[in-house]
Amino acid sequence: MFGSQPSFVMYDEEFKKINVVIERLLRESNSKVIFLVDKNGQLISSVGDTEHMDTTSLASLTAGNIAATGGLAKLIGEKEFSILFHEGEKDNLHISIVAGRVILVVIFDQRSSLGLVRLRVKKASDELSRIFVDLAKKSEETEKGNKMSPFAEITDDDIDNLFR
C-alpha cells in the first residue's frame, strides 16, 4: 500500500525522457489525457487535453484511490492491485503503478479501447520503470556527493567574516 514516502528529486534530463514516453503513450493509445503522479499525490507530469481539468485534485484523488484499494487488497490477502480501471459513460480511467513508485493515469474515451490502452501502458511502464531506476541511482549518487559538500569545511568564523 502507498504510505507517505520521501519525495525524489526530478532532474531535467529524466523529466524530458518521461514526457517523451507519456506523449508517445498518448498518441499510440489514442487517449485524451495522461498523468504521472507520485505516491504522495503530487503531479509529476501531464500531457493531453488538461486545460479544463483540475490536475492538482486529480493527482491527489488518484493517490488516495490507490491507497484505498491498497487497503482493500491487504484485507483479502493481496499485496496490492497494480492496475485499476474505472469505466464511465463518456470517459474511462486506467490507473497503474509504475516501478512501485509512481502512478500512471490514462484517461480515454470510445476512440480507444481498454485492450489497446493496457497493451500500450505495459510498454510505457517498462520504459518509465527504467527511467525511475536511473533517477533513483542518480539521486543516491547526488546524496552521497552532498555529504562531501564543498560547504562542509566552512566554519562559523568564515560566515562571520563574510558579514563584516
User: Could you describe the largest sheet, including whether it forms a barrel?
Assistant: 5 strands, antiparallel
- Which range does the strand content fall in? 15-25%
The low-pLDDT segments are 1-6
SSE string: HEEHEEEHH
Strand runs, count: 5
Alpha-carbon distance between the two ends: 54 Å
Class derived from helix and strand content: alpha+beta
Outline, from the CA principal axes? elongated
| H/I helix tally | 4
Q: What is the helix content?
A: 40-55%
Instruction: List the strand order in the largest sheet.
Output: 2-1-5-4-3
Mean pLDDT across all amino acids: 87
Global Rg: 20 Å
Key traits:
164 residues, disordered N terminus, alpha+beta, single chain
Explain this structure to me?
The protein is of the alpha+beta class. The protein is built from four helices and five strands. It has helices spanning 12-28, 55-75, 114-147, 156-162; strands spanning 33-38, 43-48, 83-87, 92-98, 102-108. The chain has a five-stranded antiparallel sheet with strand order 2-1-5-4-3, sandwiched between helices. The chain starts with 11 loop residues before the first helix and ends with a helix. The relative contact order is 0.16. Mean pLDDT is 87; it is low at 1-6.
